[in-house]
Amino acid sequence: MTTAQPLRIAIAGLGTVGAGVIRLLEANASLIAARAGRPITVVAVSARDRGKDRGIDLAPYAWEDDMAALAGRGEVDVVVELVGGSDGKALELARAALEAGKPLVTANKAMIAHHGIELAEIAASHDVPLKFEAAVAGGIPVVKGLREGAAANAIERVYGILNGTCNYILSTMEDTGADFAATLGEAQAKGYAEADPTFDIEGVDAAHKLAILAAIAFGSRIDFAAVRCTGISRVRAADIAQAATLGYVVRLVGIADLDPVEGAEPRLLQRVRPCLVPLTHPLAAVDGPTNAVVAEGDYSGRLLFQGAGAGDKPTASAVVADLIDVARGDTAPPFSVPVDQLRTLAPADLGQRTGKTYLRFSVADRPGVLAEITAAMRDANVSIESLIQQGNDDDSDEVLIAMVTHDGQEKCVTEALELLAGSESLTAPPLVMPIISD
Amino acid sequence: MTTAQPLRIAIAGLGTVGAGVIRLLEANASLIAARAGRPITVVAVSARDRGKDRGIDLAPYAWEDDMAALAGRGEVDVVVELVGGSDGKALELARAALEAGKPLVTANKAMIAHHGIELAEIAASHDVPLKFEAAVAGGIPVVKGLREGAAANAIERVYGILNGTCNYILSTMEDTGADFAATLGEAQAKGYAEADPTFDIEGVDAAHKLAILAAIAFGSRIDFAAVRCTGISRVRAADIAQAATLGYVVRLVGIADLDPVEGAEPRLLQRVRPCLVPLTHPLAAVDGPTNAVVAEGDYSGRLLFQGAGAGDKPTASAVVADLIDVARGDTAPPFSVPVDQLRTLAPADLGQRTGKTYLRFSVADRPGVLAEITAAMRDANVSIESLIQQGNDDDSDEVLIAMVTHDGQEKCVTEALELLAGSESLTAPPLVMPIISD
């Protein structure tokens, strides 16, 4: 239907996502050409191992052993970086592509979280697009949704379930009553968790995505280092059961919002933590490896974007959506406003957060422990809404005390925990989970 | 920050949405300018009554008594149509704007459903944008999400809760146990339903939105006339209670999908009907006036977009998002592919649908009625999964028989109902609700 020049792309990285992109461009070639206004064709590729069987025929494409050389090839219009890793070859290629005046499309959340501003500056200086829809929440078009769909709004808060591995583990623990370690093992066996799951379960992956979302939502420079991050490895089956009796589910939630400062730029509050989510909240229904992002705009109200957060096909869908935008001459700045207009926001003090908090103590089963804990709460001005003490299932003499505070400042909870630090009554560090308001 | 020329807009229609757009452009002027690359300023307005108090100062703007004249004003870059109505002044203005080579932004679902293709043709011939994000699902950026975010996908099905009034009524009936008429009255008192609610409760408004979504999803010419539409006015409290005991909620759902045809274009199936939605489905959690749209792509998988489906602020958010796109030189075709490439899809036969169905009969309380109904089911090859007969609450001798069929073709259900047509046993026409699969 179209006689326009094809958009010629080079792909670096031929793992499951790279192969997925090649398959998608072939499977939906005619509809992609119609929507893009011209065909999108792969002309060159690069990966670590040329000979590996990926189930796709690489013969039609030029091969480069040196990934960065893809950027210099004259016939390449756009470079697609699917190598991964915040630095190294991925970053080298990204810089080379943009410096050569070529649009860059990437699925690399770590690279964007660490170097997104630098790359956006190079892109701006050469007036070419830098696009990373696939870096946040897989197949969900939430970068576009925030950057363009919600563009008229001052975003007040952006938060969501940003890591499918953690969500799979937590929702499975909820369904089965199994403990964390067993559920992680099962997730690894099913391919929902990596052999080394640290980046996922400790919240680093979610923190990468949150830092990117915050920059888009608030028009601010990415500040990944300021994300306060707690993973899910200390969440016990007992916590999930306790949350259920209170009307909550446990989810790893990344939240970014602004703490207003009189007469100055607001401070930026970014944290990734296991949270209690009320059953009536849309995030409570997000099960398995699904991701979901909520953006609260001053005019739009609460917007929810939900879908597959990972996987070769959803991620390829996001990569190719970016390519279609590039083919149509997309001009939107990567972080919603031009990079030289992004604000630098100082990190907010987490203690300023106000709300209810769930606290769980593992304590020795002996007299006076409950008095010690409740005294610390009183001394730190933490008001307790409910408290449950229960014996542990196993034969240990460990007892669990779970409590929910009234609305209050988080710094009071921190102070209470400091008062209890080093107490011989505690058999493990306490677990603190904020409660999301409905 | 920016020295670019402002985008100068004219607004026709100063109801709650028009006034909301003016307020939003003022409230968020600096962030809108940063995201749009230039300021967006209102230069001219038109409405029915110049003197009406809208809480905004119209003095800065030129006034036109004749709306269509807005299009001819030399200083106007873009026309925003917020008058409403499928024809008349809105259509006259829309044509005039596009024929004058000016982009048109509209929130008018009826006009797009009836005349969207004609308007897209005029827009294409003058190479200007036609944008209508606000016409579908209020503040939710689902037009953009489908058209651009999911652009790499062959969409297999698009469906959702597209009318906030109906969803408010159905979810309130669920919460309170009240009947339809009382709940409608309450919705009218609260402003969630119009004085004349026909367009909403009979599903016409949802059908407008569904026809637009189907065109974008499938790259096909809008066929509003082919939408099969049943409203919610015949849903009783007893149906909702019955659905609840079976694990479902009742929602008015618009669904569009394709019925494949060997060696030819598929047929398009579009229907708006009250449906039973399993409690585990994301649409079941959509309460009150919220809207939600699900798009199932062949690569993205299931994408969910949820938010406020109406209201002055969310609708203004969508209108201004379109204006920002226009300011940045948006080039995406209104219905995802250029209008001359849209397919003409014949309507599918609704009877081909396969699935479970909920049927409710109101019958006279006398011997033989159940035998008559079950015989008709047998003769039409409808297999019954469960059946409940219950007396009515009031003193009438009417009895309700609710049944759920096994998976089967909908035409069999239709045939069974035809066998029962005219039966003196039935005290009211049967209610048929398809069951959405999870």
Number of domains of chain A: 3
Count the E strands of chain A: 18
CATH superfamily of the largest domain in chain A: Dihydrodipicolinate Reductase, domain 2
Main beta sheet of chain A: strand number and arrangement? 6 strands, parallel
**Please, what is the oligomeric state?**
homodimer
Largest sheet, spatial ordering of strands of chain A? 3-2-1-4-5-6
CATH topology of the largest domain in chain A: Dihydrodipicolinate Reductase, domain 2
Flag low-confidence runs of chain A: none
CATH class of the largest domain in chain A: Alpha Beta
CA-to-CA gap between the ends of chain A?
A: 50 Å
Find the biggest chain interface.
A-B, 62 and 62 residues
The CATH architecture of the largest domain in chain A would be 2-Layer Sandwich
* Strand-residue proportion of chain A: 25-35%
Query: What is the 3D shape of chain A?
Result: elongated
Mean pLDDT across the residues of chain A is 94
Helix % of chain A is: 25-40%
What does this structure look like?
- The longest helix of chain A has 18 residues, at 109-126.
- Chain A is built from 13 helices and 18 strands.
- A 6-stranded parallel sheet of chain A has the order 3-2-1-4-5-6, with helices on both faces. A 6-stranded mixed sheet of chain A has the order 8-10-9-7-11-12.
- Helices cover 34% and strands 26% of the residues of chain A.
- Chain A folds into 3 domains: 7-135, 3-Layer(aba) Sandwich (Rossmann fold); 142-308, 2-Layer Sandwich (Dihydrodipicolinate Reductase, domain 2), CATH 3.30.360.10; 353-434, Alpha-Beta Plaits, CATH 3.30.70.
- Chain A is elongated, with a radius of gyration of 24 Å.
- Chain A has 438 residues and is α/β, with parallel strands linked by helices.
- The model of chain A has no long low-confidence stretch (mean pLDDT 94).
- At the A-B interface, helix 1, helix 2, helix 5, strand 12 and helix 11 of A face helix 1, helix 2, helix 5, strand 12 and helix 11 of B.
- Strand 12 (301-308) of chain A pairs antiparallel with strand 12 (301-308) of chain B, so a sheet runs across the interface.
